[in-house]
């Protein structure tokens, strides 16, 4: 059985974005399936793409390059708070020695950003702990915590998650 050792340093994915993005959705760190496929939210039971299908009109059945382009066209950027860390498996609770991504550079290049949605508690906690103290987040950006779309957060129904994710709707491009 393949196992990622606890002391293995893993590196996240690059941001998917356009300079005119209005919404940034931040996860904590991609899971093992996403990292192996080099695709955001690649786990088949992750509800991210079905939520984006409803929220932003992105066809979740499209091939990955096409659905990510459709998401970008709707004004959404994807990234993670954590750029690298140590983790065994895919659970956020197993993340250790996290290093955050370069948000100062991201904010400089994305001046139209109006909202950041945090996909799960770990993304928000890491951002609050490591990024907010740097005082680099533009004051006009709304910070919105959202329930995780991960299959590990299965206690909440799709409809309940979607209702919370609707908070992003006013910031999306039509």
Structure notes:
The chain is of the alpha/beta class. The chain is built from 6 helices and 7 strands. Strands 3-2-6-7 form a 4-stranded parallel β-sheet. A 3-stranded antiparallel β-sheet has the order 1-4-5, covered by helices on one side. α5 (121-131) links the parallel β6 (115-119) and β7. 33% of the residues are buried.
Topology of this structure?
Blueprint: E1 9-11, E2 23-27, H1 32-37, H2 48-56, H3 64-73, E3 76-80, E4 82-86, E5 96-100, H4 103-109, E6 115-119, H5 121-131, E7 142-146, H6 158-165
Order of helix and strand elements from N to C terminus: EEHHHEEEHEHEH
Quaternary: single chain
The helix tally amounts to 6
* Biggest pleated-sheet summary: 4 strands, parallel
Main sheet: strand order: 3-2-6-7
**Helix coverage percent:** 25-40%
Average pLDDT figure: 91
Shape: globular
Distance between the termini: 46 Å
Number of strands: 7
Computed Rg: 15 Å
Helical/strand content category: alpha/beta
Pick out the low-confidence regions: 1-6
How would you concisely characterize the structure shown here?
29% of the residues lie in helices and 19% in strands. The protein is an alpha/beta fold.
Question: Which keywords apply here?
Answer:
4-stranded parallel sheet, 3-stranded antiparallel sheet, 174 residues, globular, alpha/beta, disordered N terminus
């Amino acid at each position: 059985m393949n196992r990622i050792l606890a002391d293995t340093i893993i590196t996240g994915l690059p941001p998917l974005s356009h300079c005119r993005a209005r919404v940034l959705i931040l996860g904590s760190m991609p899971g093992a399936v996403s990292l192996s496929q080099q695709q955001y939210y690649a786990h088949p039971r992750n509800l991210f793409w079905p939520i984006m299908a409803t929220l932003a009109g992105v066809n979740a059945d499209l091939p990955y390059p096409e659905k990510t382009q459709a998401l970008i066209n709707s004004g959404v950027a994807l990234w993670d708070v954590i750029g690298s860390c140590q983790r065994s498996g895919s659970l956020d609770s197993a993340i250790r020695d996290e290093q955050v991504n370069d948000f100062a550079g991201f904010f400089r290049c994305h001046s139209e950003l109006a909202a950041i949605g945090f996909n799960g508690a770990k993304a928000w906690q890491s951002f609050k702990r490591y990024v907010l103290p740097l005082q680099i987040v533009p004051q006009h950006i709304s910070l919105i915590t959202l329930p995780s779309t991960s299959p590990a957060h299965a206690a909440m129904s799709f409809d309940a998650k979607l209702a919370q994710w609707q908070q992003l709707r006013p910031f999306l491009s039509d």
